[in-house]
Design goal:
The complex is a heterodimer. By secondary structure, chain A is an alpha/beta fold. Chain A contains twelve helices and eleven strands. Chain A has two domains: about 50 residues, no CATH class; about 190 residues, P-loop containing nucleotide triphosphate hydrolases (Rossmann fold, 3-Layer(aba) Sandwich), CATH 3.40.50. The radius of gyration of chain B is 32 Å and the shape is flat. Classes of the chains: A alpha/beta, B mainly alpha.
Chain lengths: ~325, ~450
């Protein structure tokens, strides 16, 4: 399920080599050209791999399949997806998506249902591996290393890239055991005291400790929906991941629980890179630093959240955020 | 007139009643185009008339057929000469039997005299008259019922409701057949078992350790007093069941885990139907597989290892029974595992668990109640299984826990006690009912617990 055939791999490696050379040894002239084209003053200082970004000066258009507009790059790029394509059997679910995810920021993926945002999210920790017919091509690097390389253990990857799901899914165990599950399987705690402290600090950071500290032995399913979701977040951060993926984490919650989770995201992004899929534009606007708009498998537009919501570059983005499609 | 002709005739009348009723309903409102003026669809008026035509007639027919023999017999007895009044009930039964046999042309056990042949003729005459009466009565009631219903038809008559309620009662009657049959079977087993417990104390049956059900047929017979301690049968059943479960539970569970979590859809698509084939093999085939293939193999293997193995060892029967139960365990466990929401799976995988960690730490604990329920159902199946043990397990009631020895089971004993001609007043035959009752109670309890556990578990995740 990694890179499908050697031909594609070879082609891809050639491509990567070319880009690498360009980045490692940027002549002043090239830099100037890039600057001019992208109309971006600090393009040269980006750590990430430079790809020709779309021309932001181009007038809004409704065409699909062109370059992503806006800016796929960011400071502190930590996870970089390049030319990612996902096929579910014959269904081409993700088309040529390039996106950088930076440390200490929240990236929101928005778009109408079936646009591929969840699929893309699941690529980032290789959850698509569990789907037999899924085929992922392109590269996704985490801290500079391809997560789809042969030697990458998907299990180890998922410990670094944690995931919170749409529906709260606590295990049918006690609250304590739910949080202790990850540290236990990864052997993070040497003894019981250490495990206790991991569990407590995770619950604390998930803002749940106060509510549950006297009932840690009760089943996780006895909590309310919002508490369950925060338990799932505690469970995820107990493994101490570097990136947290959230797949519509609030869609099953009431507004108050949603607000708590959003506050939590604000706090958590101090330590983690967070990617959140959401159907709520308000939520995207509230929690994210950057927004990526997906449409029919294409990444249409990426940019800083305020830019996208105040001044969308692409006609489709504009239509979506003004409620004309979706 | 024959009853079948009569029933056919009533059926024909029902069909015509349907069309007549339908036609009248439409005629009431003035033609087929005006159907919406009726309370119900025209067809319902047809059914309404047909039901009134058929049901009363059939009810009378049924009642008549049930009562007729008694009335006729009573009439025949009345006509007998006074000398027969002194007959005992048994003698009278014999006489009536002979009269009926003579009337229908069967063999008679005594010499035919004038009284007998006269009674037989009388019997035939009564039957013939009764049939004529019945035919006239039934057809009359059918016509009358149909006509009355037909006359009642008017656009306001709410026939749909009546027809629906008849349908409802019909369905209730159909579904109660199975229930009443079960109750009947349970009661008959219960009463026969109670008769057994009058002859043999229940404590001896439940706690006695010696099973030898041969009873004396004649008073002067020696050596066959019969002892009915069922403990060796229970332990034999338990022994074979445990061997079966030792085989079936791990294999079935691992099969289910593989199919539910590890296999690709293609493998699953092939393996699952194959497993179901295993479940579809008749138990008698397993039986001779056990008796002719596995038992000699176990014996040879045991001998080469220096263990003496009975040729009808509990091990052979248990092994084959275990194989038979594998599909049951695996399909129930598979259901339980699949019922665990995939969110659990995703959650565990998303935390970086391996497949086996996900399985052992999250899925199996979540699926455990369902799996346990499935195993209980499998145990009850194993306890009640008959054919394999009849063919492969022995008849000697040894009280042993050694799987290499021959043991016998409750089901085997029931079969051997009831096969062939048996008199139904000896403890030997009645013992089968007591055993059956025990078996029924145990499997019922297991099934109730098993199904309860499975259901409770399902509710938890839906």
């Amino acid at each position: 399920m990694v890179i499908a055939d050697s031909y594609r791999l070879v082609t891809y490696m050639k491509m990567a080599a070319m880009t690498d050379t360009r980045i490692e040894d940027p002549t002043p002239a090239t830099e100037a050209v890039i600057d001019a084209v992208t109309d971006e003053p600090d393009a040269g200082s980006d750590v990430g791999i430079e790809l020709p970004a779309a021309d932001a000066a181009v007038a809004p258009n409704a065409e699909l399949g062109g370059q992503t507009v806006g800016n796929v790059h960011c400071d502190n790029a930590f996870m970089i997806a390049e030319n990612v394509n996902v096929h579910y059997g014959d269904n081409h679910a993700i088309r040529d998506v390039t996106l950088e995810i930076g440390k200490k920021q929240v990236v929101a993926l928005i778009g109408p249902s079936g646009c591929g945002k969840s699929t893309f999210l699941r690529c980032l920790n290789r959850m698509n591996d569990t789907i037999e017919v899924a085929r992922v091509t392109g590269t996704i690097t985490l801290d500079g290393k391809d997560i789809y390389r042969k030697s990458q253990d998907p299990v180890a990857l998922r410990a670094r890239v944690g995931m919170v799901f749409q529906k709260p899914n606590p295990f049918p165990k006690s609250i304590y055991d739910n949080v202790a599950y990850g540290p236990r399987i990864h052997g993070l705690a040497g003894d019981r005291a250490e495990l206790d402290s991991i569990v407590h600090s995770s619950l604390e950071r998930a803002g749940l400790l106060k509510e549950v500290k006297d009932r840690l032995e009760e089943p996780g399913t006895s909590l309310s929906g919002g508490q369950q979701q925060r338990l799932c977040i505690a469970r995820t951060i107990a493994v101490n991941p570097e990136v947290i993926l959230m797949d519509e984490p609030c869609s099953a919650l009431d507004p108050i629980a949603t607000a708590r989770i959003e506050d939590l995201m604000d706090e958590l992004c101090e330590d983690y890179a967070i990617v959140i899929v959401t159907h709520s534009m308000q939520q995207a606007a509230r929690v994210s630093r950057r927004v990526a708009y997906f449409h029919l498998g294409h990444l249409v537009e990426v940019d800083d959240t305020d830019k996208v919501f105040t001044n969308p570059q692409h006609k489709l983005t504009e239509d979506y955020i003004t409620g004309r499609i979706g | 007139m024959q009853s079948t002709t009569l029933v056919l005739l009533i059926g024909l009348m029902a069909v015509s009643a349907f069309y007549l009723g339908r036609g009248r309903s439409l005629a009431c409102v003035g033609g087929p185009g005006k159907g919406q003026a009726l309370h119900s669809l025209p067809g319902y008026y047809g059914y309404f008339v047909a039901i009134w035509c058929v049901l009363p007639a059939l009810a009378v027919l049924l009642l008549w057929v049930m009562i007729e023999p008694r009335v006729v017999v009573a009439l025949v007895v009345d006509s007998l000469p006074a000398s027969y009044e002194s007959y005992s009930a048994g003698e009278l039964d014999l006489l009536l039997n002979n009269i009926q046999n003579l009337a229908s042309g069967d063999v008679v056990s005594v010499d035919v005299d004038a009284v007998l042949s006269g009674a037989a003729e009388l019997f035939n005459a009564h039957i013939a008259r009764s049939r004529q009466l019945l035919a006239v009565l039934c057809l009359g009631i059918a016509v009358l019922g149909g006509a009355l219903a037909w006359r009642r038809i008017n656009p306001e008559l709410r026939v749909r409701n009546s027809v629906e309620s008849v349908i409802r009662w019909f369905l209730i009657a159909a579904s109660s057949i199975a229930i009443f049959t079960t109750i009947g079977i349970v009661l008959s087993v219960l009463f026969e078992a109670l008769r057994f417990f009058q002859k043999v104390p229940i404590s001896e049956f439940l706690f006695g350790t010696s099973w030898s059900p041969q009873t004396a047929i004649r008073a002067d017979q020696v050596g066959s007093s019969g002892s009915f301690g069922a403990v060796p049968l229970f332990t034999g059943t338990m022994l074979i069941t445990s061997i079966a479960m030792v085989v079936a539970v791990p294999v079935g569970l691992m099969t289910a885990i593989y199919l539910a979590e590890y296999s690709s859809t293609r493998v699953r698509g092939i393996a699952k139907p194959l497993l179901e084939v295993l479940a579809g093999i008749p138990t008698v085939v397993y039986g001779f597989f056990a008796a002719l293939t596995v038992a000699p193999w176990v014996r040879n293997a045991g001998e080469s290892a220096g263990i003496s193995v009975a040729s009808e060892s509990a091990l052979a029967a248990g092994l084959v029974m275990g194989i038979m139960i594998i599909p049951l365990v695996s399909s129930l466990a598979d259901d339980a595992i699949n019922a665990v929401p995939s969110a659990m799976r995703d959650g565990a995988l998303g935390l970086g668990s391996t497949r086996s960690e996900t399985m052992t730490k999250v899925i199996l604990p979540a699926a455990l109640p369902g799996i346990v329920g499935g195993i209980l159902l499998a145990v009850s199946r194993a306890i009640g299984e008959t054919m394999i043990v009849v063919m492969a397990a022995g008849l000697s009631a040894n009280l042993t826990a050694n799987p290499f020895e021959a043991v016998t089971t409750v089901t085997v004993q029931i079969v051997t006690l009831l096969v062939g001609d048996q008199e139904f007043d000896s403890a030997k035959t009645l013992a089968a009912f007591a055993l059956g009752l025990m078996l029924f109670v145990v499997t019922l309890i297991l099934n109730v617990i098993g199904l309860g556990v499975v259901r409770k578990y399902r509710e938890e995740y839906d």
